[in-house]
């Protein structure tokens, strides 16, 4: 399935096979039931079905209500802009972004041999004088850095994924990492997180309804450092339950999680930059800008390739690495309806198309 060519006309019914949809739904239900049982078993600290049911139907609802109250009180009603600016997370995100933006200035200055000519190639110049696509990248970066995802998602009534994440992290503790040396625990956490990220990313390209959301990320018509955060809020929300899995399985410490976040953030910013350089033999290990820029290409030869987020070897392992000779990408998606009617439309249209696809209705943008 050519992910970049999915849903290419304004009036299109997604390619949803009923039998396939039922199988996927059944699979999700089975996995969900197993997950609920594990949550109950972990929360009740017992294998007894009676105690597990008691926990699920009496203790867990109280925990759900408590979590809802926490999010509403701390995240929604008492969002503190100044506290966010002083937070470790915000400062770390801004520091990494600024370091790479400064590096980019010197890189293009040296490459062009002239400061003014080099500046025209930088992300900073594009944010100030570029297209709507680049301004959208800047808006989404600020949205992410200022922790507005919780506010927006709750305003849309999509608190569910965040609740699932919180309940899983707070109630299920496997913690394989406690039996391993610190370095091995940290490496295992990164591997599990990146393995899941690879498969979610791949499903986002090969499943019609998910592609409607992920298409927003690929609608960028030029690349810059902050394109990394050009993600639809609903798609981000859907990933939250998935993010709980490596935390549950490995149980990283807070410092380990912060180090991982900083490394991950630096890599995804760099790989979305317009450097278009490879890491040579190290491309087999870590995703380089060239590796990922080809993933963003709208050329048919580049479709459905290079899904890896941090570790490039997943694409080798699962046969999705691009091995052709054409390494000059063309950005955007076919029938790109984004970057034309404003930021609000670009947020609403994928959300609308996603739900119409779920209920098998023809997709209409008008």
From TrEMBL:
State the compartments where it is located: Endomembrane system
Q: Which residues cross the membrane?
A: 21-40, 81-109, 141-168, 180-200
Oxidoreductase as UniProt keyword: yes
**InterPro entries recorded for this chain?**
Fatty_acid_hydroxylase, Sterol_desaturase/TMEM195
The source's domain of life comes to: Bacteria
What name goes with this protein? Fatty acid hydroxylase domain-containing protein
The main location class comes to: membrane
Q: Which organism is it from?
A: Bordetella genomosp. 1
The Fatty acid hydroxylase domain is annotated at 186-320
Could you list this entry's UniProt keywords, alphabetically sorted: Lipid metabolism, Membrane, Oxidoreductase, Transmembrane, Transmembrane helix
Q: What is the lineage of its organism?
A: Bacteria, Pseudomonadati, Pseudomonadota, Betaproteobacteria, Burkholderiales
What is the recorded membrane topology of this protein? Multi-pass membrane protein
């Amino acid at each position: 399935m050519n992910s970049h060519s999915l849903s290419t006309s304004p009036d299109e019914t997604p390619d949803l096979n009923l039998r396939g949809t039922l199988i996927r739904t059944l699979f999700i239900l089975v996995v969900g039931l197993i997950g609920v049982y594990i949550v109950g078993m972990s929360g009740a600290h017992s294998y007894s079905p009676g105690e597990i049911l008691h926990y699920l139907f009496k203790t867990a609802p109280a925990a759900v209500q408590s979590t809802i109250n926490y999010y509403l009180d701390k995240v929604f009603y008492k969002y503190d802009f100044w506290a966010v600016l002083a937070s470790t997370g915000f400062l770390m995100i801004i520091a990494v972004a600024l370091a790479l933006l400064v590096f980019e200035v010197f890189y293009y200055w040296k490459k062009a041999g002239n400061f003014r000519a080099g500046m025209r190639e930088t992300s900073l110049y594009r944010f100030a004088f570029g297209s709507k696509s680049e301004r959208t990248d800047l808006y989404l970066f600020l949205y992410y850095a200022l922790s507005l995802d919780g506010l927006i998602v709750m305003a849309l009534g999509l608190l569910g994924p965040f609740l699932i994440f919180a309940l899983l992290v707070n109630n299920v503790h496997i913690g394989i990492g406690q039996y391993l040396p610190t370095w091995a625990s940290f490496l295992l956490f990164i591997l599990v997180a990146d393995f899941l990220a690879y498969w979610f990313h791949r499903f986002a390209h090969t499943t019609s309804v998910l592609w409607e959301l992920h298409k927003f990320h690929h609608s960028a018509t030029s690349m810059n450092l902050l394109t990394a955060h050009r993600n639809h809020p609903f798609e981000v929300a859907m990933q939250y339950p998935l993010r709980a899995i490596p935390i549950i399985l490995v149980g990283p410490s807070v410092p380990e999680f912060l180090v991982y976040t900083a490394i991950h953030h630096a890599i995804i910013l760099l790989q979305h930059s317009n450097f278009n350089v490879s890491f040579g033999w190290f491309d087999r290990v870590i995703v380089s800008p060239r590796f990922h820029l080809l993933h963003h290409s709208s050329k048919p030869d580049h479709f459905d390739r290079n899904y890896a987020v941090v570790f490039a070897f997943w694409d080798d392992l699962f046969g999705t690495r691009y091995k052709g000779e054409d390494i000059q990408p063309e950005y955007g998606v076919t029938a790109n309806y984004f970057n034309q009617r404003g930021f609000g439309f670009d947020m609403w249209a994928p959300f609308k198309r996603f739900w119409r696809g779920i209920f098998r209705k023809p997709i209409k943008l008008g």
